[in-house]
Specification:
208 residues; alpha+beta; five-stranded antiparallel sheet; two-stranded parallel sheet; 6 helices; 41% helix; globular; oxidoreductase activity; Gfo/Idh/MocA-like oxidoreductase C-terminal domain-containing protein
Length: 208
Amino acid sequence: MKRNLQHLVSSINELETALSTYKSISADAPGQIIWSVAENYRFKPALIEGKKLIADIGKMMSVQVIVEGSMNSSNPYFSSSWRRSFIGGFILDMGVHFIAGLRMILWRVVGTNGTLQIERGFQGQHGYLVSLYDANGQCKSSFFPFIGVTEELKAFFNDVSENTLKKGSQFVPEHRLSFVEGARDVALLEAMLESGSRQGKQVQVKKF
């Protein structure tokens, strides 16, 4: 089963119930049940490359994430009915993806030896520009297209194939598709929103 997590849950309580139910069903199943979460940000080549480059900038000094999302009639997601009635709406739908990217790479990161920056869109192209600035200000940049969904589906189909061939005995699913990773994204986003509603007070993030 492969589902987008924000279509399934809208709170920590629902996450815990869903995870408990999945474990219960899996315990009685004759083979391993695959429950994959459709989170394409963990499969974007730009973010994967950025994660590799993090080690080159030294000790982390600061992190900056800037997200601008126009949610009006020009956006194809604006007309979807479930986002209007679903708890969390557009914020949960969009935010959970950026949280996934944040947890994976932290986007613009300033370190003692340089800065790593990932920008969406470059000179009219659809994709990401990954730039690594060293301590002397020299920059190395690479462009990566939007193929996260394609890579995500490849990983899911590979999991299904491997699980069938190995019959669950030695099968290890792709961790980036795991329900637990999706649950952690939602938990962090919920904690951020709660902190904001409490004027920035520190909030404990639910651990999964």
